[in-house]
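#lab-general

N.A. 3:47 PM
ok so I finally got the sequence cleaned up, no stray characters, all 593 residues accounted for. can someone with queue access submit it? mine expired

B.Y. 3:52 PM
send it over

N.A. 3:53 PM
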Amino acid sequence: MTKFQFVVNLEVAENKGEDDNLIEYFERTQIYLMGVFDGLGGRSAGYGGQTGGRIASEIASKISKEFFKQWNGKITSENAIELQKKICQALKKAADDNNMRTTSSRLKGSLIEHKLCTTIALASIPKQQTQDKIFEANLAWMGDSRIYFLSPTKGLQQLTKDDLVTSKDAFEMLRQDPPMSQYLTADINPKWQIHFQNYRFEEAGCFLACTDGCFQYFSAPWEFEKLLLETLLNSEGDKIEDTNWRELIDQKYTEIKQDDVSLIIYAAGFNVIKHLKKSYQERLKYIQSNFIADTNNYDSLKKLWENYRIDYEYYLQFIQDIPPISHVSASEDKSSIPVAIAIANPSTNNLFQQFNELSKQKADEEVKRLYDRAKYCYQNYQFSEARKLCKQALQIEPDEIDLKYLLGLIYYQLAEKEYNDQQKNQFLTDAAFQIKEVINRPPEKSMEIFVEAYKTLGKIYYRLNDWEKAVKFYEDFFKCEGSEKCVNSKDFDQHLEFFVNSLVKSKVNKYNPANAAIQFCQRIIDSNSILPYGKKPLIYYFMASLQEIEGEFNAALNSLEILLELDLYSEYRMERKAKEKHQNILNRLNNRR
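B.Y. 4:20 PM
back already:
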């Protein structure tokens, strides 16, 4: 297991810093333990010439270091609760021994009456499980210090959820500073509970532990990632022990810091600095190219955030909003037991109902996050990743129509990129299977996806050379109410071509499907909708082709003559095709005479 790690520790005021940190490697278990502590309360409520915040963070760090020796660095849900208790007992003893009185100190803009307060954010990372770069991380935290994973493919990903009185995302937190809802303190609220979370990572990357001074003073969350990656790629030194990456980060924060900065970086799965730099090169290029905005333009930043947050917030969906409740002995005051464990009473059914509603809400939120991320990957041509995310979401909600349709589109794109004919046809068959689910159970809210499903199935079966089915689904599409709105889609002309080709090659009675398509064209013409330039000639040409198939040659000539009377400026190809078809039909009529 690589021990590539370093610490950035800067004070906003010399010798007045209130952050502390912890880094330990346990040889026996090959676990790397790291953590940060942000003392709260400013310069009030201290003793011995030190602020209460500095005293609190130092005590918490020291207790944590001693505590995990007996656990060989491993964090569990049980020992995290025990650690919380030990730290708070030590803080209380320190306050009592120094005759500290409860005083009002401004924490995060709110007057809070607590003594010796600090955040905590810990991560224990065992040796990778196999040679396939699979890592686990166990986390414990309270407050707003954070643990991150910096992925070479997905960028900065927040692994801990800030404890805030009013919930805010990372973007909002840069503009608002709500008070914390819980933290470690000498007189802790009995309902406050440390969080525990386990994660699994299937790629090498960097784990970060940091106090809010590291990320709170940028214009957007991706600026933190950009600072880390730009300093990494600009660093010198071929060996891990020789790199000046830490010094470059130091320099950057010295220029911009507005608070104490404590940052620990642990590069898991890398032993050579050049491999670390190489793995993040493409990610930095992506960030530099796609996340550029005026830092004073809120709307522009917000729009970029909606894209960035898909990967950034991916792991937050797995965190329980209600933390686990510690065991309470019989001697403890029952009035301090949180309601969450007091279920043996007449309101049990109501509590179970609330729990079920909460679980359903949590599942819905998770499905939405997976869907949003899958859609983002699909739009950015990451089809394999998008397929995996859709399947994960469908395991939670098997009947979600939007997911099935998106998965169908993903399979179609995978087929388009596949060279092996057998695998290509399998992808197309899988695409058809998923999208048929949409038309079998039309969505309740929006019919747009229902209409699109017919059109897409027509295209899929055209690719499979199943002309009869292609004609059938295109015919159903033409008959759908509102299908004429699809005329503005960028691939509309391709669908019309597929339908005509399928109709010519199929053995079905051509009158009904052709007539349905002609009526579709007429609806578009009669709607007087403003079509993009080039679409109107296409509609008339398509209608003429169908009228020709039906044997309605005079009607086809009429459609082509209307087409040729349109303003065909720059539409030379369409004009030539229309004239050729017009002449061919005239020749056929003359030969028949």
